Amino acid sequence: REHMQMTLGLRAPEDLPPALAEYSIALADGIPKYVTEILAELRKAGAIEVTGPPTDRKCTVVTVDGEDENQRLARVTIAAWVHTSMVGKCLSLLESLDPQEAAVVKMAAVFN
Prior knowledge:
Elements: H1 2-8, H2 18-28, H3 32-44, E1 48-51, E2 58-61, H4 69-74, H5 85-95, H6 99-111
Helix pairs in contact: 1-3, 2-3
């Protein structure tokens, strides 16, 4: 949480929306570089906003049509983040598999 707080320029870890913290921690699997990439991609996609002067920054998850923060974060298309090391590593591992094994994994991902 402290890494996310510093990355976003917030005053304290408590200023981070709980849904965003849980989402980022689960997705990053404890790797700080991935947390940084996740936050950058979420900002770029307009899923989160950081507003206010440096001494009083606020971070919010941008929701629409009455959805809650968790629903908004669930709508994020992580597969589009191919230029990040987080997704790139997964893709390179997938491509290193035997073609038959890779086909099974790809099919499982489609039907999951």
